[in-house]
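Posting for a labmate who doesn't have an account.
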Amino acid sequence: MAFINEYISEEDIKKYGIREIWDQFHPFSKNDLNLQKKHSWTVDKDRGVFFIPAKSGKEEYSNQIICILWWRGTYLSVTLRKFGYPELPKNTIRWDFEDVWRPEGCSITDEEIKPVLMEALLVYGARGVEKQRPELLVSFGF
């Protein structure tokens, strides 16, 4: 199976501790994971990999997105930048890699993470399951 965009089931929220991970990014709104809407992810269930944008930057960092990448049973926090119109032609988006936080003792390198991240982002596009745009050209600055 390849990556797909879908809403996260209650079973998967519990299985992967999504609520607890989400609360780390949103400490002032703990347990709000289900209040506004269903949350979604880009997931490859066969490989046990998922990608969730968790937090967007403000003001001059408005194109910065901190994401959850679960891979090899490890939660990683990946910081990306997203560029689109007017910086790029319409129907084009570019993702740039900035940084990754790893738990202590994690040996997964940036060079191992990037190809998996690119696979997920190609499917995620601009907004995952919430807004699919087949005409969107996804590119990478890494």
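Reply:
Got it, the structure tokens are right above this. Residues 4-140 form one domain.
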